[in-house]
Structure to design on (323 residues):
């Protein structure tokens, strides 16, 4: 992992006049040890729900004099819009939210995901699966039908003769996964009961979100994950992958979601509006209000941020503590 790299490149063999560039990834080291991140999917422009997550993760990183990394989760290429990344970057800059270090694009990281996958494959932790969605649905008991059914393990012991793997699944087991959330406290989940053996490489050849996130968080040295509460249900799978790949587990804080009028999570799918960037402080204050914090009276962004940090420190101490 990157954190194990030497802090200085070995320059002893180079002629004195050669300038040695610092290792780019060393920029991500934080003087306080806190490394956070914001990881939007470029499936549309930045909307209010993602602004809230960006603000929470940004304030928490800045409060700790930590690093705030930006990762563009463009792994699900069919759903991504090329212009959305630019919109998100411009929106963050217009709001005064400058990230640290180089941007990580998941679409450029497939070889890293392959390496992690190969480790798991060599340890027989993954297996090929030939089932179609319909076959999985047909093999379930009526009471097992749900939005995301538990995979019944059809291909666990090997593919039927003449069948080829469509997707690759991670073996789960009955050992409960434990993790802690800053706001929600101790969590426990038994993956064999909640999701079953889950997909790491999809039938369309794309890497699954769970694997990409875990590899990226580990390789960029993320220590604190502050993100939307919709990802609570992904956390046990990610912790399980961290254990399986011998990665450290970061600390988690899942923030309250912004809901749409229909009560669902506000998202690009249910018509979240692109943000009006002409009034950045107004937008940021709306996001503070989402956390129940008083708006900051400021005309300039440079005056907004120090007071927003004070608000965040109060919010943080009211919400909980790392367990
Ligand atoms: Zn199968």
């Amino acid at each position: 992992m990157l954190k194990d790299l030497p802090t200085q490149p070995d320059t002893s063999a180079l002629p004195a006049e050669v300038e040695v560039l610092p290792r780019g990834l060393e920029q991500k080291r934080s003087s306080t040890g806190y490394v956070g991140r914001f990881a939007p999917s470029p499936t549309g422009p930045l909307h209010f729900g993602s602004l809230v997550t960006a603000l929470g993760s940004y304030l928490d990183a800045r409060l700790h004099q930590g690093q705030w990394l930006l990762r563009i989760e463009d792994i699900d290429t069919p759903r991504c819009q090329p212009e959305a990344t630019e919109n998100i970057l411009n929106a963050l800059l217009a709001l005064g939210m400058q990230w640290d270090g180089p941007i990580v694009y998941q679409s450029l990281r497939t070889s890293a995901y392959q390496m992690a996958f190969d480790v798991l494959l060599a340890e027989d932790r993954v297996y090929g699966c030939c089932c179609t969605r319909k076959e999985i649905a047909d093999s379930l008991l009526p009471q097992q039908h749900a939005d995301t059914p538990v995979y019944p393990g059809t291909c666990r012991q090997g593919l039927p003769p003449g069948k080829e793997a469509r997707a690759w699944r991670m073996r789960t087991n009955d050992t409960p996964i434990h993790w802690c959330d800053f706001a929600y406290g101790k969590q426990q989940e038994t993956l064999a009961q909640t999701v079953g053996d889950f997909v790491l490489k999809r039938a369309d050849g794309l890497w699954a979100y769970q694997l990409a996130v875990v590899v990226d968080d580990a390789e960029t040295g993320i220590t604190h994950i502050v993100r939307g509460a919709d990802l609570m249900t992904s956390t046990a799978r990610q912790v399980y992958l961290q254990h399986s790949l011998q990665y450290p587990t970061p600390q988690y804080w899942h923030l309250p979601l912004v809901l749409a009028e229909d009560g669902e999570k506000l998202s690009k799918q249910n018509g979240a509006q692109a943000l009006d960037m002409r009034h950045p402080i107004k937008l940021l204050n709306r996001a503070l209000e989402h956390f129940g914090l008083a708006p900051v009276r400021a005309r300039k962004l440079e005056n907004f941020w120090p007071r927003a940090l004070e608000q965040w420190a109060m919010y943080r101490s009211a919400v909980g503590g790392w367990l």
